[in-house]
Amino acid sequence: MCDYSLHAVATRPAEVGETIVTTTFRGTSTRGFASEADMSVAVCLLPGTELAFADNVRYDNRWIWTRTINSRVGKFGKIDPHIPDRHHDAIEFPDGKYVLVTQLVEGQRATVLQLPVTQPLGEREHKPQITADRPTITRLPIG
């Protein structure tokens, strides 16, 4: 669940309430989220994870410009998963726009507000089933 979880980078899942920081991981050119307590550990987010940034979100193309999104909240997701050899991790904002995680300016802090609900393997959604011991409705003749 991390584009930036390269073999040289330690990873762990995000936890609700923790503060994560955007960074470029040592030995890579990829940006992502790190633990505030240990900037060498990439924090992986599941699609649907909700984040609250400390300030309006800033992103860049690394060479020429930096832009700001007038939003402090976003939801982690994946874009264009069918295109190989490309970054897919992105933050979607309430206006429907998204920014690749690898384009986020370094040093931005975000709090993990909510993780998506996941269902343990082997469990299915409970659907009521009609059984023979249920009462049936009988139409009465009119007249």
Keywords, separated by commas or semicolons:
single chain, 143 residues, mainly beta, seven-stranded antiparallel β-sheet, two-stranded parallel ribbon, 11 strands, 0% helix, 35% strand, globular
Please give a structural write-up:
This protein has 143 residues and is mainly beta. It has one domain. It has no helices and eleven strands. The strands form three sheets. It has a seven-stranded antiparallel β-sheet with strand order 3-2-11-5-8-9-10, with no helix packed on it. Strands 1-4 form a two-stranded parallel ribbon. A two-stranded antiparallel sheet has the order 6-7. β6 and β7 form a beta hairpin. The radius of gyration is 22 Å and the shape is globular.
Explain briefly what this protein structure is.
The protein is mainly beta and 143 residues long. The chain is built from no helices and eleven strands.
H/I helix tally: 0
Strand order of the largest sheet: 3-2-11-5-8-9-10
Structural class: mainly beta
Radius of gyration: 22 Å
Main sheet properties: 7 strands, antiparallel
Gap between N and C termini, in Å? 67 Å
Provide the fold topology.
Layout: E1 10-13, E2 19-24, E3 31-35, E4 41-44, E5 50-53, E6 57-60, E7 66-69, E8 73-78, E9 89-92, E10 98-100, E11 109-114
Parallel strand pairs: 1-4
Antiparallel strand pairs: 2-3, 2-11, 5-8, 5-11, 6-7, 8-9, 9-10
